[in-house]
Amino acid sequence: MRKAGFIALVLLCGLTVQAQLKGVKHVILIGMDGLGAYAIQKADNPNMKQLMAEGSWTLKARSVLPSSSAVNWASMLMGAGSELHGFTEWGSKTPEVESRELDLYGLFPSIFTLLRQQKPKAEVGVIYSWGGIGYLFPKKAVNKDQGCPNDTATTEASINYIKEKKPDFLFIHFDQPDGVGHNIGHNIPEYYEQVHKNDVLLGQILQAIKDAGMWENSVIMLSADHGGINKGHGGKTMVEMQIPWLIRGKGIKKGHEVQESVVTYDTAATIAWIFGLKMPQVWTGRPVKDAFEK
């Protein structure tokens, strides 16, 4: 087939039409439950701060409403807000509102759906500490689906998977510091001590990426679902809604504070853009292009 004809066929069939970010083979998304943006500058977290120094970041990214867990993890992975994907509560297991569109797995289209359809040979995994994550992605679309009892176990499982399989895309979910926030409180010494512990685990994952020989061709992202006040969340204050959004790696600006508006559903769109995936019309997320070198 002539080259021009092939290109026309690709466009006609709706396959990948954007170029993959040159040199990137892996994206690792790390989500820390209840990590408010306010905590980043206050905590003893050298690994998080190193990601900021080596990459791009904003501490003004926003959750969708309500600022609680399932609705926001769904939005992060599904590229749209609750009014479209239908997950509306902190512990949603199925959409309370009818999803505007369903994929071949019977869920609202997610980054996992796009990867499996457009890059069918991709190695894709989800490793998580909170069982609620297991309802927010199509299990048949991933190679690795592992729920863990705590963040330490999640870290160990992630390290093993990274070294063994070198995944194209891996979503790692930590249940902390949300547990401390609920049981003891946010913005207090115990909360920041937990953020420090999370940072230590983050460092172990970063080292595993290096040990696996993936460091130079990976993009690493760190974000959260919400912040919190006292022992709760779900409210409409900036303390509850503002989340960190950090990205470093191949093709990412260094030491750059993103000035663009970022909402959590832009995470899925950014990952799709990195991989050169065609995004569904129903997604409202946009890739955060200000984070990338020209």
Automatic annotation (TrEMBL):
This is Type I phosphodiesterase / nucleotide pyrophosphatase. It comes from the Bacteria. Keywords: Signal. It comes from Chitinophaga niabensis. GO terms for molecular function: hydrolase activity. CDD domains: ALP_like. It holds the Pfam family Phosphodiest. InterPro entries: Alkaline_phosphatase_core_sf, Phosphodiest/P_Trfase. PANTHER family: BIS(5'-ADENOSYL)-TRIPHOSPHATASE, ECTONUCLEOTIDE PYROPHOSPHATASE/PHOSPHODIESTERASE. The lineage of its organism: Bacteria, Pseudomonadati, Bacteroidota, Chitinophagia, Chitinophagales. Residues 1-19 form the signal peptide.
